[in-house]
């Protein structure tokens, strides 16, 4: 996928962003980007900006809401700076009920706690954006368009060097459901190879999108 920073991103939307630069220069984006650049490692921040660019490019291809996609991409790893202990403490403070796998897989918690931070720190109330943050790691069988874009963009953004990312990049602009299915499949393959636990939502995503693309 080749995405040019000056490409037109939202010609038909109510909002009038014409370039990725304009999106990044919006006061809300600047507020979030400033927070992220201070809290995340440089590598993580670069990843977030790459997800932003990739997701916005995909949003244009799939006629999605570019502004919502921009915010979801910026915020998807908003608490990735937290340690495992901080994530579990935050989850407890927010009285989040964790499922049995989330209780033993801290890597899953940043998506859950991130929703709370998006609401509290940045006043995000749009359910599509919050759903995208919530589901970006495991996926979900019934994701909305914004969530699907973030799920795929997080996997294929340009700094991802594994070969599976290159394979999904070939068709993500054309067939988003096929891309979602492939991401779930590759994640399951990876987790099986490692002998790690697989969250049921990842398997449900694999099944649901396999049905979608074959029916
Ligand atoms: Fe993440
Ligand atoms: Fe990410």
Descriptive overview:
- The chain has a single domain, classed as Hypothetical protein af1432.
- With 215 residues, the chain is mainly alpha-helical.
- Residues 1-14 have low confidence and may be disordered.
- The chain has helices spanning 20-25, 27-39, 42-61, 66-75, 84-93, 100-104, 109-122, 127-135, 145-156, 163-169, 176-194, 200-214.
- Helix 3 runs antiparallel to helix 4 (66-75) and helix 10 packs antiparallel against helix 11 (176-194).
- The longest helix has 20 residues, at 42-61.
- Helix content is 65%, strand content 0%.
- It starts with 19 loop residues before the first helix and ends with a helix.
- The protein is built from 12 helices and no strands.
CATH superfamily: Hypothetical protein af1432
> Roughly what is the average pLDDT, rounded to an integer?
93
Which runs of at least 5 residues are low in confidence (pLDDT < 50)? 1-14
> What is the fold-level CATH name, i.e. the topology?
Hypothetical protein af1432
- CATH first level: Mainly Alpha
Shape: globular
User: Helix tally?
Assistant: 12
Cα-based radius of gyration, to the nearest Å: 16 Å
Bound molecules: fe (ii) ion
Question: Beta-strand percentage?
Answer: under 5%
How would you sum up this structure in a few lines?
This protein has 12 helices and no strands. It is mainly alpha-helical and 215 residues long.
